[in-house]
Design goal:
The protein has 13 helices and twelve strands. With about 400 residues, the protein is α/β, with parallel strands linked by helices. The chain has two domains: about 150 residues, Aspartate Aminotransferase, domain 1, CATH 3.90.1150.10; about 240 residues, Aspartate Aminotransferase, domain 2, CATH 3.40.640. α5 links the parallel β3 and β4. Bound molecules: 4'-deoxy-4'-aminopyridoxal-5'-phosphate (PMP) and glutamine.
Amino acid sequence: MPRPYHSPLTEQDQPMPSYSNRVSTFGTTIFTEINVLAQKHGAINLGQGRPDFDGPNEVIEASIAAMRSGKHNQYAPGSGTASLKKAVADHAARFYDLDVNPESGVVITSGATEGIFSSMLGLVDAGDEVIVIEPYFDSYVPNIIMANATPVFVPLRPPDWTFDRAELRAAFGPKTRAIILNTPQNPTGRVFTYDEMKFIGDLCIEFDVVCISDEVYEHLVFGDARHIPMASIPGMFERTVTIGSLGKSFSFTGWKLGWVSGHPDLIAGVGRAHQFVTFASHHPSQEAAAVALSLPGTYFEEFQEMYTTKRKLMLDGLSAAGLKPFSPEGTYFIMADFADVFDGDALEFTQHLVTEIGVACIPPAPFFAPEHQHLARTQARFSFCKADDTLKQAGERLAKLSR
Ligand code: PMP
Ligand code: GLN
């Protein structure tokens, strides 16, 4: 078994004998580690994807009103409030022309993180194989392990971060139960094209596989890139559960509210797991999320414009410092190759950047299986969900690298 989630920074940690075997390979998440390091050294923290600004005020007001009304301070229905489930279905129809059943086709979860975990527990059996595209969001592999299933890795490779079609096909086999996909993709910033999505969808159909499609960055796409939901690929609605997040689309990561939508047969499995993971999610936030998902198109346009500016600031700062960034097609992350300005691996670079330059980033090794970590040896991830001034200041500090 690989050692997923085991950050190289805590390699010295020894599992305590009191741990279950299931969690004995899990180290501290890289996000927590970098947050601690950044704080210790007063670095500008471009590590964790954590906006340093608030989401829309009307959503905050809706949350406060929900609490004050006295009607939303006790348990919500387990699968979510009727108004939020309807808002999730309406949003899928408005943006993607998808026909989601607002009653049996949606489960509201405590963040996308719980949505992914409940999907894994509700759709995958012990001994099944689950295909994971690397670099992956760091909870996926521990989730697969906690479901007693086996991850099968297929890497995206720099500089384009595309997958090899023959390699992906070869990962599918008789034991494959699911693939977990993320588009727009954290950490690379890739937005898979229609052709790529169709290729993956066709493999799912051929091998009778379910897709857990993590689309939390659906509203963060740039330039000509278009977000293609897996559920919109012909034949895939019946095989896909789609994950969304209030934290990402509305900049409320602290509220930890998400949703899983799809065909009722699959959602029934997700709901069965969800009821014994959290039972129900935060009730006042669900009232506010229904307002958020119903915001007019201008909200989503302005959101993209705001991030287009931030993306440029970050790209300019990284390029001026002598790094080679991949221009992200989506998300608020940039992967950049630092080989021209630093001799060493990503962990050494991160430590140097935090302690000597005053900027924190994420070394991407924990997003790969050990056998593929070398692919990103000279890459680091930078988050640009920060105030413009913070990004400019980070750029000034990064400039010290090129001297
Ligand atoms: N998936 C991806 C790709 C993410 O980047 C994140 C960010 N944490 C999540 C899922 C989890 O989202 P949430 O905060 O809603 O749990
Ligand atoms: N999604 C965020 C990121 O990739 C972090 C979320 C977390 O800390 N689990 O930076």
